[in-house]
UniProtKB/TrEMBL annotation:
Residues 1-20 form the signal peptide. It comes from the Bacteria. Residues 63-248 form the Penicillin-binding protein transpeptidase domain. The lineage of its organism: Bacteria, Pseudomonadati, Pseudomonadota, Alphaproteobacteria, Acetobacterales. Keywords: Signal. This is Class D beta-lactamase. It holds the Pfam family Transpeptidase.
Amino acid sequence: MRRRLLLAGVTALAARPALAQAPRILPRAALGAEAGRPVSFLAREVGGPGAWMLVDSALDALHTPWSSFKVPNLLIALESGIAADLAAARRWDPARRPAAPHWPAIWRQDQTLGEAFRNSTVWYFQDLARQVGTARYRATLARWGYGNATVSQGSDRFWLDGTLRISVREQVAFLAALLESRLGVAPASLAALEAASLAGAAPGLTLHGKTGAGPRRPGPGAEGWYVGFLRRDAAPPVAFALHTYAPDFAALRDFRRDAALRLLAAAGLLPAGFPQS
């Protein structure tokens, strides 16, 4: 048992390489009129020396991942065979998964895996979690070095209720390890993730990202994520993560992605006027 735990720890550490060099510091002025917002941001060139950090970022503070966890969750569903591909469909059962008042209309219907990822449909991934099971989650997240890798027994909400927690630095390390093929993920599963997460394109590059948001705990307000990566034709990919707080969800909704794009542009990683979708 002790040997297994030791090996798991070594594997997790392998998924969290130190930055190749001290990151270049990005000024808060890059956020424009929103420079005063509490934002933490890190980007790292995968397999290259580049790294960029927003000044005064709390890179090691742990947060609930919310729907940014759909990145590993989608991969686990595919790698386990629970979902064959992005077209894997599930029926919404309103008796078992009753709609909450805040649910958007798009959640209140049947979904495919690809649609559920793009729509951030919570019930779909909760249903998946019941099939994946606690033991598989614990083993996989520990092997991948994903945050604290903590999963409550039998829970289908552990990425929403504060049990599972992850930092900005750990989000970037996980994505970098994934893109470097160090997690043992099949190429077809990574290709499916790239298709589901495509969020913008320009000549020679594509943006892949996933949002996440929920109530701030403790305290009032909300917290949110935008995590993802850039694929570049003529340079290594770049993994990035942004975390922020706001008074409410409305103040988060567009800001997360917009702020990440501003910072990626300030780092010279996106062209001016990069398309929004």
